[in-house]
Write a structure and sequence with these properties.
The chain has four helices and eleven strands. It has helices at residues 2-7, 69-80, 124-130, 160-165, and strands at residues 12-13, 31-36, 44-47, 53-56, 59-63, 89-95, 104-108, 114-116, 144-149, 152-157, 180-183. The longest helix is centred in the middle third of the chain and has 12 residues, at 69-80. The protein is elongated, with a radius of gyration of 21 Å.
Amino acid sequence: MMLCACAAQKTQPLDAGPEPQVDYLIGPGDNVQIIVWRNPEVSLSVPVRPDGRITTPLVEDLEASGKTSTQLARDIEQALSRYIQQPVVTVIVTGFSGVYDKQIRVIGQAARPQSLPYRRGMSLMDVLIMVGGVTEFAAGNRASIIRMVDGKQQQFTVRLNDLLKKGDITANVPMRPGDVLVVPESFF
């Protein structure tokens, strides 16, 4: 009879839809290499601080989070133009975390629950490999993905046990930026 209460949770099968075209946005924890053409003294590699800013020679506390590498390069050029005539800047992201709202979060009975940077073409199997699978206490076929769809939060069922233990590749679904994978504990 307690199982009836559990079944009342509203989930639905996952309809992947087309993969969104997403430009990579720099986020806290990323590392960026800044190359200023013909000015090696101001070219360097810096981390993006937790507040989303970077500091370089001649440019202090510049917002980097939420920008593409090209946008950040133009901002650095503008800041450097006070000191260098017509600076040409290239920004290369060398360490990836991404902005928080685009990361994939894995919570519950994963071997290593964590946030992961989203990568184009990422699947549920890729996420499970990165978190080391699920614990022995996981109720894998009761797992779900929480996803924002058209501005509304929706919950979709996924079959982790079928994917991991039975090799049912049809249970491998595409992930999207901002997804939360919830792996509940089994009740035995």
